[in-house]
């Protein structure tokens, strides 16, 4: 009887431990890596994550006017990929360019509030050669393959020459980053060319 009780007790402890691991592991897996590194030594791990997330999110609005803050909030709550209605798509050039893709900006989509500007940009395989497909969120591609044409909305700070890097998960963090902070020169070129179009108006 004693042996059976011990076995039962062990099973219960094992089930509880397994359940706790299921609760803890996914949560850590979704946390931004820099936040995880900051909080991994802290006793109250989840409290640390929550506090720093709130602090970093609130810093997005520092120095903005009320209208700019509202504009930023609306952008953060919108979908990343967005369709357009009868967009006016103009190709932008940058160096070094991507030999396989053309980049277009919907000049009709440009919106400005103070120093903040949003616009829609489309990346499309050159072989498509059909700017009207940019009116769609995505065209072609699959889960395993990048779409042949994809349109998304971007937000820039004209005065500070920053781009908003938008979070993609519930535990991600949105942040302002310098346009020329990328290691890949081509990516910097795309954002610099987009910033120039957005902020010249």
Write structural notes for this entry:
It is built from 5 helices and 7 strands. It has helices at 2-30, 33-39, 45-58, 66-77, 185-199, and strands at 89-91, 101-113, 116-125, 138-139, 149-157, 162-165, 175-178. The protein is 38% helix and 22% strand. α2 (33-39) crosses α3. With 201 residues, the protein is of the alpha+beta class. Mean pLDDT is 78; it is low at 17-30. Strands 1, 2, 3, 4, 5, 6 and 7 form a 7-stranded antiparallel sheet that branches. The chain has 2 domains: 2-57; 65-199, Lipocalin (Beta Barrel), CATH 2.40.128. β2 and β3 form a beta hairpin.
Topology, element by element:
Elements lengths: L1 H29 L2 H7 L5 H14 L7 H12 L11 E3 L9 E13 L2 E10 L12 E2 L9 E9 L4 E4 L9 E4 L6 H15 L2
Antiparallel strand pairs: 1-2, 2-3, 3-5, 4-5, 5-6, 6-7
Helix pairs in contact: 2-3
Number of domains: 2
- Report the CATH architecture of the largest domain: Beta Barrel
CATH class category name of the largest domain: Mainly Beta
Shape: globular
Protein structure class: alpha+beta
The fraction of residues assigned to DSSP E strands is 15-25%
Q: Total number of β-strand segments?
A: 7
Separate helix tally? 5
Q: What is the CA–CA distance across the termini?
A: 83 Å
Q: Biggest β-sheet, characterized?
A: 7 strands, antiparallel
The overall pLDDT, averaged over residues, is 78
Residue stretches low in confidence (pLDDT < 50, at least 5 long) are 17-30
Helices and strands, in order, run as HHHHEEEEEEEH
Radius of gyration: 23 Å
Percent of residues in helices comes to: 25-40%
CATH fold naming of the largest domain = Lipocalin
